[in-house]
Amino acid sequence: MSGSVSYRFSQRLSHVPASFLGELFRVSSQPDVISFAGGLPDANRFDVEGIRSASEEVFAQEGKTALQYSTTDGYLPLRTYIASRYRSRLGLNADPEDIQIVNGSQQCLDLVAKILVDPGDHVLIERPGYLGAIEAFSYYEPVFDPVQALDGLIGPDPDSVRGLVTDNSPVLWYGIPNSQNPSGMTWSPGIRREIADILDGTDTLLYEDDAFGELFFDGRPREPVKKSLPHQTIMTGSFSKTISPGLRCGWIWAPHPVIEEFNRAKQAADLHSNLLSQMILTRYLETTDIDRRIWETARVYEERCHLMEEIIDDRFPAGTHRTSPEGGMFLMVTLPSGIDSMDVFRQGVSNGVAVMPGSPFYIDRGGGNTIRLNFSTVDLNLITEGMERLSQVIKSLK
Ligand SMILES: Cc1ncc(COP(=O)(O)O)c(C=O)c1O
What is residue 388's predicted lDDT score, i.e. its pLDDT? Predict the structure, then answer.
């Protein structure tokens, strides 16, 4: 038997960007490295005891159901909970029939692209944009059109969106209006209305990824674009940042024809999401003051974010710019021109601090002097120490 097999991978793999994340995780998990590179919620905020007792109740009361196969659309009490929270928090009229549970909202990126995007279709994405979306969409071979942020970072530039929608008739416009990953930017109410007006009446769908909408530091919900554009907006959400990513529970809420196709694709992909997780989560949500817990988490993140901002303003070289997040888990720094963020990454790791270079977030290969900093996982003392190390590295490269 010959050991030389020539593995024939599909052509579409050539469209997927080389992932830098493996190297990133490897170096940033070294024990002596303070990492601002990741994107995890703070594990100290997980309510281990609460989830444990919810699990015990599910096993005691409905163990056989929880361990059985289930429907593709997801556990109805959980979908009903999500719909009623849309109503109570945001005044949105959501029907549980148009909501489906997924294995983390990341799964929506794959399945939405699978049902909507043909090779060569145009997809609009923010510049910088969420890397997980760039990677997931790439398998379906779209042409990405990057949308520049407005000066002042109050959202995407409406003129750029208008031009791209008119000229390229994109099938999808993927954006993160609340505390975007990677920039931390939040779209202003005016920009939200303008984006809805531009799309209204076209056949471009908006994909409104709301992974961070519950995590505003001031606790105030921002009105989704979907409110002004209900029949053209696919909205996704997640329990990952508020309760636990390990449960892998997210959802999609979309116009009925989209949900029907999504359901078929989801069934083909994995039959249904983990029912046990869905039932535990539902039980947990029914028995917990979730608003208080989320508020406390946002307080912790706010304090960390503000400390990082102060240190950037005090210690980083002149010519540095940063975003001012209103929530979420990330902020983005633009370093003085000439500083290469890959050098910051490499030198940083040698000096005990890891950052995420910005360029993978730029579909047009820009952002070479930007870095993304995560403020959710590292406590205040380590932020002070890590940011001091980082400022030294940046000064040494200037
Ligand atoms: C903007 C955004 N969307 C979606 C996801 C996927 O999250 P999950 O699959 O855990 O819901 C993430 C994860 O970090 C994210 O940052």
Answer: 97
